[in-house]
Design goal:
This protein is an alpha+beta fold and 113 residues long. The chain has 2 domains: 2-68, Alpha-Beta Plaits; 82-112. It has helices at residues 9-21, 46-68, 89-94, and strands at 2-7, 27-32, 38-44, 82-85, 99-103, 109-112. The strands form 2 sheets. A 3-stranded antiparallel beta sheet has the order 1-3-2. A 3-stranded antiparallel beta sheet has the order 4-5-6, with no helix packed on it. Strand 5 (99-103) and strand 6 (109-112) form a beta hairpin. The chain starts with a strand and ends with a strand. The structure holds zinc ion (ZN).
């Protein structure tokens, strides 16, 4: 067995379920982290270690992407086909608008101040 991740209990559970769907069997083990708090070590067999690391990293990267770039949605039609347009010089001179979000599905414009 090799440990490939140490996480809080909730994250460990989510990651273990994700990996199980990919055919990787995780063996969680409750440990104390460096702060004396309860953490969960996820272990996998040596044969599945590389694959488990790879999937865990991919999943981590995907969730970070989501956090930093939340999908913009049009408030009118809920479409995510929204373009952020910064080049609105004409508007800037008469208003305090710095940019707009334009929905390509319904044409709704949301000003960003
Ligand atoms: Zn729309």
């Amino acid at each position: 067995m090799q440990t490939f991740a140490v996480l809080d209990a909730e994250s460990a559970k989510v990651l273990a379920e994700f990996l199980e769907r990919e055919g990787i069997v995780c063996h969680p083990r409750t440990v104390e982290d460096e702060h004396g708090l309860e953490a969960v070590e996820l272990q996998v067999s040596e044969a599945q270690f590389d694959r488990a690391c790879e999937l865990a990293e991919q999943r981590q990267a995907a969730s970070e992407e989501e956090d930093t770039h939340p999908k913009r949605r049009c408030p009118a039609c809920k479409s995510t086909n929204v373009e952020f347009i910064e080049d609105v010089k004409d508007l800037k001179t008469i208003t305090r608008i710095t940019a707009v979000n334009l929905c390509h599905d319904c044409g709704h414009v949301v000003a960003v101040k």
